[in-house]
């Protein structure tokens, strides 16, 4: 394992992979700072530009945007009480209070160092858990993969935030969109309504650009933008005192472990991990100053959201199943390079896996360098007029969509799904379930039909222990809330 890791470092210590890593983490930091498009939209924008890169460099750049965005969100959360990402909301609660007391620099340092430590811890988790899980996953057949996807959809609809029914509906819509075009097994053309341009299916990348890019811009246009005045931070203000350091050590390691483990489950794991970490630190804290600038409320959540981005790579790399929009885009990036993630990735493309691991450590070092001396520079980016920024993002969305196949069809997909995404936000629907439904829908259908062909009888699903166990867990997740609610109402009536 150490030899493989060393080979990964050797593989990425060349100009192209290093530049890709630098570009990825820099863009990720900027995306985390600037509210709006988010890491998913940015990764989708950059996908067309990775065509000319080798597979390792392409994956390094996209992954750098993903985990770099977790770093950047802390800057505006602490200085301006303006989370650039949903995963930075918990940081804003305590960070802004510290900034108002003149301890914003110390809060930024703890956030950056905590994220670096969390990234290191979670990278080792990826190293030690990834290959053994891949070996175990080799015994999985289409029925097991199908059951895991069903479980993922059930968990996603339950914890996506908001109404479970709305999340479930978005998943179904995503599944429907994913079936447009040629059937992978029979070759029959479906749901194209006579359009020859739709025979290849609806591309995932334009959909993401529309829902996470154009929709966010439209949403910002109907809101009331307040004038932002970034605070100035001097280098000597960045040093935390001894008490702040001692109170941060345990939360950083607890957040790292919690974030990595929560990253393994489907759904908005970065947001969930920060909430769980914040709640845990609030319960364990002996100081009782939460809500008034508790350093534990920054160290824990910031460590958790960075560790989550690494933990979320395990389902993608081991099973080839993305459980979050950013990892779904990573899957698209790999497939565009002709590489199918899954258990065989660790043997057939070991250089890519270990190169990614090595680049993540290099990226964490670069992020630590960026997020301390350049805090003031990054904060000043918020002075850019939204009109200029929005125009640039819309142009990149349309150019990137057109470059996929040089057709107007993809550009119209961006526009249509941008309007759909705006309407979804207006009516309280989440975009992540729809996006994952589009990505996983064809895989779910293909594995289900392969299972039926292989088993010849649907009842044979019940003869496979792993499949039965996973489907039983999914059923319990659906039924248990209703049972508990019924018990609660019965108890209230008796009382």
Automatic annotation (TrEMBL):
The chain crosses the membrane at residues 12-34, 46-69, 106-133, 145-163, 169-189, 201-222, 257-280, 316-340, 352-375, 387-405, 411-427, 465-484. Keywords: Membrane, Transmembrane, Transmembrane helix. Residues 18-436 form the DUF112 domain. Pfam families: TctA. PANTHER family: TRICARBOXYLIC TRANSPORT PROTEIN. This is Transporter.
């Amino acid at each position: 394992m150490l030899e493989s890791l060393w080979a990964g470092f050797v593989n990425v210590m060349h100009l192209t992979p290093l530049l890709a890593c630098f570009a990825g983490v820099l863009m990720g930091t900027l995306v985390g700072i600037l509210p709006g498009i988010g890491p998913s939209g940015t990764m989708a924008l950059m996908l067309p530009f990775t065509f000319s890169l080798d597979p390792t460099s392409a994956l390094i750049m996209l992954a750098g945007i993903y985990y770099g965005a977790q770093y950047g969100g802390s800057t505006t959360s602490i200085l301006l009480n303006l989370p650039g990402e949903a995963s930075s909301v918990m940081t804003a609660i305590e960070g802004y209070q510290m900034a108002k007391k003149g301890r914003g620099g110390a809060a930024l340092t703890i956030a950056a160092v905590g994220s670096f430590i969390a990234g290191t811890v979670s990278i080792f988790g990826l190293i030690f858990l990834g290959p053994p899980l891949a070996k175990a996953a080799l015994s999985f057949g289409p029925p097991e993969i199908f059951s895991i996807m069903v479980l993922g959809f059930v968990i996603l609809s339950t914890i996506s935030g908001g109404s479970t029914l709305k999340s479930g509906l978005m998943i179904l819509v995503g599944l429907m969109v994913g079936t447009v075009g040629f059937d992978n097994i029979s070759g029959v053309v479906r749901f194209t309504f006579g359009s020859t341009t739709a025979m290849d299916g609806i591309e995932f990348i334009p959909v993401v650009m529309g829902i996470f890019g154009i929709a966010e811009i439209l949403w910002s246009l109907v809101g009331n933008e307040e004038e932002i005045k970034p605070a100035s931070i001097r280098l000597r203000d960045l040093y935390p005192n001894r008490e702040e350091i001692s109170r941060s050590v345990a939360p950083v390691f607890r957040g790292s472990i919690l974030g990595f483990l929560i990253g393994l489950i489907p759904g908005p794991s970065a947001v969930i991990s920060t909430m769980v970490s914040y709640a845990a630190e609030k319960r364990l804290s002996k100081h009782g100053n939460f809500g008034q600038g508790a350093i534990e409320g920054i160290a824990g959540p910031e460590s958790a959201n960075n560790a989550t981005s690494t933990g979320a790579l395990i389902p993608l790399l081991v099973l080839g199943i993305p459980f979050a929009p950013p990892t779904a885009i990573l899957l698209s990036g790999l497939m565009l390079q002709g590489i199918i993630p899954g258990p065989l990735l660790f043997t057939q493309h070991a250089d890519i896996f270990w190169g990614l691991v090595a680049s993540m450590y290099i990226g964490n070092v670069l992020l630590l360098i960026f997020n301390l001396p350049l805090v003031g520079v990054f904060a000043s980016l918020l002075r850019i007029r939204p009109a200029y920024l929005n125009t640039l993002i819309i142009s990149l969305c349309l150019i990137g969509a057109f470059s996929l196949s040089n057709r107007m069809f993809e550009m119209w997909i961006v526009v249509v799904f941008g309007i759909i995404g705006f309407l979804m936000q207006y009516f309280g629907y989440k975009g992540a379930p729809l996006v994952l439904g589009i990505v996983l829908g064809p895989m779910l259908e293909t594995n289900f039909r392969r299972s039926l062909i292989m088993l010849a009888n649907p009842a044979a699903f019940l003869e496979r222990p792993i499949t039965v166990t996973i489907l039983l867990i999914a059923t319990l997740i659906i039924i248990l809330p209703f049972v508990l609610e019924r018990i609660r109402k019965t108890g209230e009536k008796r009382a």
